[in-house]
Amino acid sequence: MSDNILSVIPADPHWQPGPEAADRAVAIVAELIPELSDGFAEVEISWHDAVTIVDCGANLERIGCPRCAGSVGLDWWNELLETQEDDGLATLLAHVPCCGAELSIDTLDYDWPCGFARFEIAVWNPGRDWFTGEELTALADALGGPIRQVMAHI
Fold this sequence. Notes:
Blueprint: E1 4-10, H1 19-32, H2 35-38, E2 42-54, E3 63-64, H3 74-84, E4 93-95, E5 102-104, E6 109-110, E7 115-124, H4 133-143, E8 147-153
Antiparallel strand pairs: 1-7, 1-8, 2-7, 3-6, 4-5
Helix pairs in contact: 1-4
């Protein structure tokens, strides 16, 4: 069985909201996703000590390099995911395999959005697609800062 995960993360990978702000945002998510009250969806809130990759799972088909416009390669990405699995990322800087440039990995061109965060609201099997612009604005206001969303398929 596969799962879809709709995640909301701060736009700044290092920023974390306070617990009250997170609770406000989760209350909005509960209003936007009826499947939560039906028991078909589940929400998880995570605070991380280090920046963690919030990837899109099987939705990811290509990563492009903003420096050379080449393909970074999914094998390289999967290795990066494995290295950060337990402790997060010490830095967002990495040497990309296409041209060897040292870049911040949050500047790579992901064909499905991926993100980097120390805080995440993840809704498992939300029964819907992306949050709308208006919904994202409400969630950003609740959290107290700009946000991004990631849709994973695992």
